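A quick aside before the break. I want you to see a complete sequence-to-structure record at least once, exactly as it would be stored in a machine-readable document. Don't worry about memorizing anything.
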Amino acid sequence: MSLSTRQFEVLRDLIFKELGLQFEDAKVEFLDRRAEKRMLALGLKKTDEYIFHLRFLDQQGAEMQQLANLITTNETYMFREFDQLQAFADHCLPPILEYKEKLGVRRLRIWSAGCSSGEEAYTLAIILREVMHDADQWDIQILGTDIDQVRLEMASRKIYGKYAVRDVPDEYMARHMIPVADESYRVRPETARLVEFRHLNLSDRAAIRTIRDMDFIFCRNVLIYFSDASRKAAVENFYNSLNRGGYLYLGHCESLSRITALFQLKRLDKHLVYCKE
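That is the input. The structure line, written in tokens, reads:
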């Protein structure tokens, strides 16, 4: 199969409309291979038939979801971008906890947006249990969301191979991971219980409006796949989801400078973070 220029543009525009993901012209072969897999699964022989199916027959979005599972990028592992996590634990988390203690509100909410197979969400759970000596006395919820249902199912199993845990400090491995078969590890129940997962499209404004009172939002290396307009809308939704004084974490190569002025950029030690003041 080979997408024509017209077919690529139509398919690309459909994906952008439904998922908010943007594909440049250089991605034509990538999209061609993914669409071909779905055509084989549906028993379709012509690309135009598949496009017609997406446009007019996929009323519930089931096929678009299947395509989304194939075209989203899911490379991740625990304790990725460690220095940023260290800034979270050393500089941002303590004052939030202290402020809540003064209010008598032992409630902490963190959102891992674009969590893929859950490595980031469980990393945050490990950090909280290490930093907070009284974590069991707090109402803690780490919400992991992603558009890829297959990856979310993997996250719910809580089992990871040696590649995914290669950067977890040895002492943390002993306290938070249980060895299982085939050089894999399961997140311990007392750590895993802090995390829950939910299917979510970051372009679905109605669904995101239900996510409120967040103290921290991690959306690292996700918005780089969005268009400027989709990126701006997502960031504004994050702002509305955060509590005053809450923080937004993006990937090292991402910036809000050309997107919005809603957040205050702060330098903590050698790290840059975005704060809702």
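Two observations worth writing down. The domain at 5-71 is CATH 1.10.155 (Chemotaxis Receptor Methyltransferase Cher; domain 1). DSSP finds eleven helices and ten strands in the chain. We'll return to this after the break.
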